[in-house]
Design brief:
- The protein is α+β, with helices and mostly antiparallel strands.
- The chain has 2 domains: about 40 residues, no CATH class; about 130 residues, Beta Barrel (Elongation Factor Tu (Ef-tu), domain 3), CATH 2.40.30.110.
- About 20% of the residues lie in helices and about 25% in strands.
- The protein is built from 4 helices and 6 strands.
- Strands 1-4-3-2-5-6 form a 6-stranded antiparallel β-barrel.
- The longest helix is centred in the first third of the chain and has 12 residues.
- The two termini are about 20 Å apart.
Amino acid sequence: MRLSFVGELGWELHVPRPACVPVYQAVMTAGAKHGLVNAGYRAIDSLSIEKGYRHWHADLRPDDSPLEAGLAFTCKLKSAVPFLGREALEKQRAEGLRRRLLCFTVDEKVPMFGLEAIWRNGQVVGHIRRADFGFAIDKTLAYGYIRDPSGGPVSLDFVKSGDYALERMGVTYPARAHLKSPFDPDNKRVKGFY
């Protein structure tokens, strides 16, 4: 299948179990001249966070809405197509988001894993759900939901007007907030445009 969880031009191979070893050997043999090597799941995590691809267990949970997660494009809100939860999303859109998932970059190479505090203008406004190192951009990347401490909506102006820091083990590191992943924000690489 033409599918990628890491945001690169690629394929996912679905083969019967008895064919797994022969297919693996054939792929590794054919790829040897291109420098193909095995990569582990941590590589998948690092690549997917750079692209802004969401993980169900971390970035997305049952209590997160597609609007809060920046996934409104997955809903049919611009059409008349009915779907379960449509009214709730329309109400949330009209009232404004009370929290919003943001991407943060930290220039310092500091390991982060999740649950680090997100500071905005000297106040804690949320915590990191998932973090990893982005090798293509040479920065620490983190995703977390923020709230307005006053209880108001988390508008784009609110996001853009803040000074951010991420706290790891009592030390704060200056951070930059992004609404989209800073690496390939237009998702061109998965379409073969490098």
